[in-house]
Every structure is written in C-alpha cells, then in structure tokens.
Write a structure and sequence with these properties.
With 103 residues, the protein is mainly α. 53% of the residues lie in helices and 9% in strands. It has a single domain, classed as SGNH hydrolase (Rossmann fold), CATH 3.40.50.1110. The strands form 2 sheets. The protein has a two-stranded parallel sheet. It has a two-stranded antiparallel ribbon with strand order 3-4. Strand 1, helix 2 and strand 2 form a beta-alpha-beta unit.
Length: 103
C-alpha cells in the first residue's frame, strides 16, 4: 500500500490504531492485536514513513486506570473509540501534518 501511494506521488504517514478493550487473542485470533500495532510501526520504520502514534497517546491516557475507567474514557465498544478517542486521532493527525509542514 505504501508503494502504491508513493507511485502516485502521495505523501504517506502511518497512523497507529487505538488499543482495544477485551480479548487480545484466542479464541478470536491467534495473534495478539498489539502485535499488529507493533508491526505497523516496524513497517513504517523500514519504509521510512513518518509515524503518527495515536496508539501510544491513547495507551498513555488510560495507563493506570481500571478496565472500567479506561473503557468509559476511551471506548464506545471493545473495538472502537468514542468521541474522545476520535479527538486523539484528529489531534495526532493535525500535529503530524504541522510537523511535516503540510499545513
């Protein structure tokens, strides 16, 4: 995907996705979800693509909270963030665009 975007002269930024609440692996998946997030960071680094690490910001915001507190702050269900989480995505995208001098 990165190569395809670069082929049509698009600037590429890798934004990591939100953490999830609930089960990370078996019986739903053999690979923990957090491994996919780490792989996206690794691929961005290999490809020389700037990263906007929304996952790290969200994890820092829920660090130290109970599962219930973290869920109420960040999630609308186990896999999707609420308005607060979408605000983090927007802020991180905006900050990255400024850092890259796109705006």
């Amino acid at each position: 995907m990165i190569d395809r975007l670069r082929a049509i002269n698009c600037g590429v930024v890798m934004m990591t996705v939100a953490p999830i609440a609930g089960p990370q692996d078996v019986p739903f998946n053999k690979t923990p979800y957090s491994d996919y997030v780490e792989e996206s960071r690794r691929i961005a680094k290999i490809c020389g693509v700037p990263q906007s690490d929304a996952n790290a910001v969200m994890n820092s915001r829920i660090q130290g909270l109970s599962e219930d507190e973290a869920f109420k702050l960040l999630f609308c269900d186990n896999w999707h963030v609420n308005a607060y989480g979408h605000g983090i995505y927007a802020n991180e995208a905006y900050r990255t665009l400024i850092d890259m001098k796109y705006i």
